[in-house]
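User: Study the fold:
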Amino acid sequence: LSTVETADRVLVVHDGRIVEDGTPAELIGGGGRFADLHGAWKDSLV
């Protein structure tokens, strides 16, 4: 996920459908699937 943090745009796909679309900052702030995954990843680094 460290590489994804520098992306211009991220698409989150679930069950074959795009469920989230935006910049990493937008998706982290949005509280959705990407935010959950990102939070779990950050927690694993500590």
In short: The two ends are 15 Å apart (CA to CA). The chain has one domain: 4-44. The chain has a mean pLDDT of 95. Helices lie at 24-30, 33-44.
